[in-house]
Amino acid sequence: MNIDWSKAPEWANAVIEGTGVLVWVPFTDGICTGQIIEDGRSQEVDMLPPHKWKLVEVRPVKPWTGDGLPPVGIEIEAMMRRNMHDGYAWHRAKVVHGPLPGSEGEVLVFCLETTSPAWVDEFRPVRTPEQIAAEQRKKEIDEIHKICIESFPSSTRTGELNRTISDCACIIYKAGYRKQVEL
Looking at residue 27, what is its pLDDT? Predict the structure, then answer.
């Protein structure tokens, strides 16, 4: 069965079937009001077991580009604490609830490492392995640059020297030199 989601009400995120009738519903495990697809009439839906309804299709989630709020149901990276003892850092999380009135810029997430819930207002799409590697590369080159630039007296540091050292830091990194972990 092919559901035309362009005709779905904004609140609907699933289609169920019972006795040959297809109904748009807000996906839930309780009693809700849905809308019959054919004629638009309201239909009370009792999803408490045992029930006569069968899940036909869940609304596909569009990839989130990072613009606006992330949709409910997707994995993101959120600036949050894993627990009360940690500082804020980026953690993988799942969006479980959209914004509430008065908090339009926040979503409720569960940290995937600890399942701790948090309302967050800083989030981004999950980074690809390539993005993570590029960030790590930049961090390591910046560290080489810092070590090199600090070896010169501050009075001799010029823009040209900074660019030269920056180029050298890239060359050193590309040659395979890395900081050794001290045991």
Answer: 65
